[in-house]
Amino acid sequence: MRPSMRMRFACGWTLCLLSVWGCARPGATAGTLAQATHPETPMATSDPHAALPPALAQLNAERRRGAVHERVSGIEIDDPYRALESDTPETRRWIDAQTARTEQALATARDPAAEERLRKLLSIGTIGDVAVGGSRVFFTLREGERERPALYVVDQSKPATAATLGAPLVDPGSYGEHASLDFVDPSNDGRYVAFGISENGDERSVLRVYDVQEKQLLRDTIAHAKWASLSWLHDASGFYYTRYPSVGEPNYDAANEDSYYQRVFFHRLGGDPKRDELVFTGQEPTDFPAASVDETDRYVVFSNFRTWTASDMWLWDRGAKASTRHVAPNPTDLAAVITGADKLTSGCVRGGQLYLLTNLDAPHKRVLRVDPAHAGDRSAWQTMVPETQVSIEDAAFSTHALALQAIDDLHSELMLFSPNGKAVGNATLPTRGSVDALSVAPDGKKLAFVFSSFFYPPTLFSYDVETRALTQLYQVQNDLDTSSFVLERAQVPSADGTQVNVYYVHKQDLVRDGKTPVLLEGYGGFDVSLLPELHRSALYFVERGGIYAVANLRGGGEFGEAFHRAGMLENKPHVFEDFEAVIRWFSTSGYSNPSRIAITGGSNGGLLMGAMITRVPKTFAAAVSYVGLYDMLRYPLFPPAALWTTEYGDPKDPTAAKYLHAYSPYHRVLDGTAYPSVLLETADHDTRVFYGHSTKFAARLQDANRGPHPIYFYMEHAMGHGHGTGLSDLVRRESRKYAFLSSALGM
């Protein structure tokens, strides 16, 4: 799951693929390619480690003694492994034994040369958390042998290389062996930068502030800043920020810290955080409020994101005189801009105008403008950028320009407008790829962002909105040679006829003989868009002669909000149908067959894997699933999963319980079934998806499986949902995955 709202919104605060497009033209259907050559065939040959060792079978039997039969919203439910939800010595013994079995079984398939190659590929750098402050561009970078991203800074007019970049401003390694950077928010002038540090990948951040000018860490330290958003006053004297309750405050829950009741506070730089003033709070424990201050410090926009599909907004005018301003409003000071709608709206004030990015009456989003004095009067709203068929993902506003990050035909476009809404044109990007982390200072003339594609390594760019000059500020070091690779793209009809895009990479000399190994990835949820970007370890699979593919499923954001809603709540089965269609297509198109196809996904994509394992186990040979949800009738009971009921539905609602039960992977496992090879991974410090989903699902599959293929479980330690994973951790995980896939696919 992603924290809060998946996207970055218009004013820069965060709430929770290839350069060549191959031979299959955009819009080509499966019918334009080779037709069926392989029916569903038996999966790969039997694995010698398939049988569950007697000791593990005994542990399963012991944990099954906690079986529960109950009624949930009128539905009779069997939960044979309820005991594996509890953190007990018995559960820990089960976890340790299962993990050891997986490690031992896959050790025989490991190849030192493969690990060496994976380390080299995974050492290609990542760039993220781009944020502009004054003339400075702050960004996180991990490359080479560095374990985790560190915080760096460059001047927008001075491109850097690895030799000239210098030392990081903040190295998370100085805070602990498993510490990681969670967020980066500079002051508007770039003098200071606030950042979050958490341990073991749990994302439970402590907020700190670094003085860039004096090159020193300030004493300001704020706990409970998980998934925090910040907005600095223009004079850098303080900032609005979000955090969760502390000890002694209302709604503090010692058993489930940093899960619900996020609120907006104000911190005066140098002040005691314990005395920070509460400024704004939402109505529900799952609300995500945030503040955005304009470049004059007069106006504050308060947004409250109620779900992945809805938000409210209020505007506070602090007054024209700085001397009479307060840091917190009275309730009567707030002017409602938009409330109660099941639509997403974000915005900020720039140059004395309130700008709104919204999908209200515009599923692909549009930009509106209004005088703050009439912010709540919809008749006064002016359309600045109308809705088109291009989906807007993000926006960056300054007093000089509006930049829109949009998706057009499954790649990013960067669209530029003047403050009055006149189209300036699109930035010329290096190739078809993905723009990420778009940022601009409130009064800035230069944007900054990251660009990458399957064949284009992550690169930090600056864009001058006046001269329209694109400047490369930093590119990760690499020696990639992808000249022998090809990207192809196809449209595959789903069960109801909806066309599902799939793009896939392989070697140029691929022979379509129905025997090529395939690794297919999917997600399909939370408005998340899967666009072209560099997939490092996937290159290893392609180098070995395989096809790596990504499917754009309903539930994602690639084609606007209607596309998202077509795969959420009662429509979730459409996501599974889409992915199933793509799996089958790789057999019927002549590329592969079920014994050579593997699938993978994590988090919400892990739910997708569970659905495929239990819906169509004969259509593929192996599944690798990370930190997934599998028990859809109990998921909201494990914080912070109540955040996701608007995406999936609430099991307390009989209507939702019925469709959740119908696809819930844990409840769809059938005794006596021959399942494909499965590797289920989770992590002990995952504060998004509870590890109990994976323990229960693994045990249930092991009990039911009557086929020749193994069901493996693995728990990572000192790691979380994925954030903060170190290079060494990645190498071990990917080596384990490819050892598993090599065995399962006969590679």
CA-CA gap between termini: 32 Å
Q: What is the C-alpha radius of gyration, as a whole number of Å?
A: 25 Å
Give the beta-strand count.
Answer: 37
Instruction: Give unreliable regions as ranges.
Output: 1-45
Helix content: 10-25%
Biggest sheet, strands in spatial order? 30-31-33-32-34-35-36-37
* Count of DSSP-assigned helices: 12
Structural class by secondary-structure content: alpha+beta
Give average pLDDT, whole number. 92
Shape: globular
Largest sheet: 8 strands, mixed
DSSP strand (E) fraction?
25-35%
Notes on the structure:
- Helices cover 18% and strands 31% of the residues.
- With 747 residues, it is α+β, with helices and mostly antiparallel strands.
- β18 and β19 form a beta hairpin.
- α1 packs antiparallel against α2.
- The longest helix is centred in the N-terminal third of the chain and has 19 residues.
- The chain is globular.
- The two termini are 32 Å apart.
- The relative contact order is 0.15.
- The N terminus is likely disordered.
List the SSEs and their pairings.
Layout: H1 54-64, E1 68-72, E2 75-79, H2 89-107, H3 112-122, E3 126-133, E4 136-142, E5 150-155, E6 179-186, E7 192-199, E8 206-211, E9 216-222, E10 230-232, E11 238-243, E12 263-268, E13 277-281, E14 288-293, E15 299-305, E16 311-317, E17 334-338, E18 345-350, E19 353-358, E20 366-370, E21 382-385, E22 391-397, E23 402-407, E24 412-417, E25 423-426, E26 434-440, E27 446-453, E28 456-464, E29 470-475, E30 485-493, E31 499-507, E32 518-521, H4 536-543, E33 547-552, H5 561-565, H6 572-588, E34 597-602, H7 604-615, E35 622-626, H8 645-648, H9 654-663, H10 665-668, E36 677-683, H11 692-704, E37 711-716, H12 727-745
Parallel strand pairs: 32-33, 32-34, 34-35, 35-36, 36-37
Antiparallel strand pairs: 1-2, 3-4, 4-5, 6-7, 7-8, 8-9, 10-11, 11-12, 12-13, 14-15, 15-16, 16-17, 18-19, 19-20, 20-21, 22-23, 23-24, 24-25, 26-27, 27-28, 28-29, 30-31, 31-33
Helix pairs in contact: 1-2, 3-4, 3-12
